[in-house]
Amino acid sequence: MGLCFPCPAEAAPPSPDPEEKRAKLAEAAERRQKEAASRGILDVRSVEEKRKKKEKMEKQIATSGPPSEGGLRWTVS
């Protein structure tokens, strides 16, 4: 069992275009992130909907600003 070297008459296999290679690597990275994010979750769609709903509520709270002075007051007795 020896090492196999390409024959001198054969040309080296063409290397992929750098742009194409970067696009494939980006796709693979996104796919890995999605797989890692959904690991252990049975219903991915419901989790995404809950996350979006939570973000929407946080945005509404942030845009509404601080409560007005005429609101309820807490007292400690």
Task: Explain the overall architecture.
With 77 residues, this protein is mainly alpha-helical. Helix content is 53%, strand content 0%. It is built from two helices and no strands. The protein has helices spanning 18-37, 44-64.
Task: Annotate the secondary structure layout.
Layout: H1 18-37, H2 44-64
Radius of gyration: 28 Å
Structural class: mainly alpha
- Please report the number of helical segments: 2
Query: Which series of helices and strands comes N to C?
Result: HH
What is the overall pLDDT average? 81
Low-pLDDT windows of residues = none
Shape label: rod-shaped
- Specify the helix fraction band: 40-55%
Quantity of strands, as a count = 0
What's the short version?
The chain is mostly helical and 77 residues long. Helix content is 53%, strand content 0%.
Structural key phrases:
single chain, 77 residues, mainly alpha, 2 helices, 0% strand, rod-shaped
